[in-house]
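in:
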């Protein structure tokens, strides 16, 4: 058990048989009344985000999530196949389980698979990934120092706002938490 006063972003907890990841939290001490913790939780099984308020000091169960390093192999009929890099065991995840992560997954990419007991919960992406620009408007000479941006479609289908100097087939570093452009690779 863990106290809600010890919440951290990314912590995984168990409430009413559900697995939840703490996305955001805020300790509130009103002038009148008892203190409480306002939190935003993401259901790891369904992906639904819910806001929940706890009394200060309330206890919740801590879920122990294991990470297995796996390699994304291929997609076949809506099933995404991952292989354990140590024992070559393969698992399949459906598109609903990794809907957000599909914007960043490329074949042969190594990721961490989140496991709870024997259940596969989802995919933990690295902070940044390198993706190729599939299509974007051509850059105009002299636009390299301006602060504007234009949309670019990446090889995975993700749309990213990039600086004007980026062209098709450029390799870019993209942030996986918010889908933003970081730099050229």
């Amino acid at each position: 058990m863990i106290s809600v006063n010890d919440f951290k972003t990314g912590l995984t907890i168990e409430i009413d048989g559900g697995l939840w990841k703490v996305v955001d939290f805020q300790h509130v001490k009103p002038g009148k009344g008892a203190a409480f913790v306002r939190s935003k939780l993401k259901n790891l099984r369904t992906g639904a985000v819910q806001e929940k308020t706890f009394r200060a000091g309330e206890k919740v169960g801590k879920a122990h999530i294991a990470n297995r390093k796996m390699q994304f192999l291929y997609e076949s009929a809506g099933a995404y196949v991952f292989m354990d890099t140590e024992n070559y065991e393969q698992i399949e995840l459906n598109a609903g389980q990794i809907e957000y992560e599909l914007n960043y997954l490329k074949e042969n990419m190594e990721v961490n698979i989140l496991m709870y007991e024997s259940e596969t919960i989802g995919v933990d992406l690295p902070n940044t990934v390198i993706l190729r620009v599939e299509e974007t408007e051509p850059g105009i000479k002299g636009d390299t120092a301006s602060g504007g941006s234009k949309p670019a479609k990446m090889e995975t289908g993700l749309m990213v706002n990039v600086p004007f100097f980026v062209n098709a087939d450029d390799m870019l570093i993209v942030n996986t938490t918010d889908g933003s452009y970081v730099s050229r690779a």
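note: DSSP finds no helices and 16 strands in the chain.
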